[in-house]
Amino acid sequence: MDKYCQHHKIYNGGKSEYYFFTWSIPEVSLINNLSVSTEQFKMLNENTYYASLYGSKDDITFRITSNSGNLKCFVSMIIGSKTLLLSKSLNASSSSYGSFYYYDLIKLSSKDESFQKLKTHPNNTVAFICKVIYPGCVSTGLVKKVGNISKDSLYNLRSLAAVLRNSSESSLKEKVLLRVGEETETVSKAVLCARSPVFAKMFENDMREVKENVVTVTDIKMPVLKVLVSFLYTGKLPSCDFEFLCDLYYASDKYDVSELGQICVGLLIPQISMRNIHRVMKLAFFHNDELLKSTVMALIATNIETWFSTNDWINLINDEPKIAADVLNFFDF
């Protein structure tokens, strides 16, 4: 049976690690003596986990197995990526055997309404959207924290080194002025064009920016633009709060600095909650970010009884009706 699984490690600099994965399995309605598992995913401190799906014509079980007994697990089961079947969370393991702990998040029998709906739904591909939290004490030397030299930072520095090696001395000395209102930031034109395809294309065309070497930015605040520029040079970020990360993600997508965008998403996801989901939802849909979309939908799925009565939902309908329609379509309303 074909299995499609995407796994993302998202480290929080505090006491917890966050992991997020989606698993899509086709033809589940034809289940008969089914037993499939994902690969084993590594966590910090030599911990691991994997997900399994067991089933027959009369029952189905979704389980997470780990050598850690302290996991917190959340899962939403969706048919055909749109119809929410059910959501479940566990703050402790269901059982254990030897050094393994079992988290039975979903157990359905033929008597359950959800099981019957699964069997009769015309689209029999099932998607599991799962978040795993390991609340152990994390060694700060291993955590991917902002400011440390990570693999991503080294990649950025190597890219910068290639720019410096392959550019002429005269081009390296050429400067560009980024202007936001009355404020300006001076940047190496070679670095700007090498690290951002959008800026590179801008200076290839016969535009005013080419003649004046001045770029006026109207939709990004100068502090955010300065951090983006600093990242182009260093591959590192300073400590940023949630709102700043959202603005920085917008800037990274606008100028196609993909490495920065990926880092922003990794830092945003552990902070997403029902208090800020409206902001993240707009980012996810405007920028067509599938990981952010999946995370937002998983959170809504686990709070579906309350979400559609919140002011955020009302504001979403009023401000962004197309996104609201996409949310309703996702849950097959």
TrEMBL record:
Superkingdom of source? Eukaryota
Using the record, list the residue span of the signal peptide; answer none if the entry has no such feature: none
Per its UniProt record, what Pfam families does this chain match?
Answer: BTB (PF00651)
Question: Which SMART domains does the record associate with it?
Answer: BTB
BTB domain: residues covered: 174-241
Q: What is this protein called?
A: Speckle-type POZ protein
Which lineage do the record's taxonomy fields give for this organism? Eukaryota, Metazoa, Ecdysozoa, Arthropoda, Chelicerata
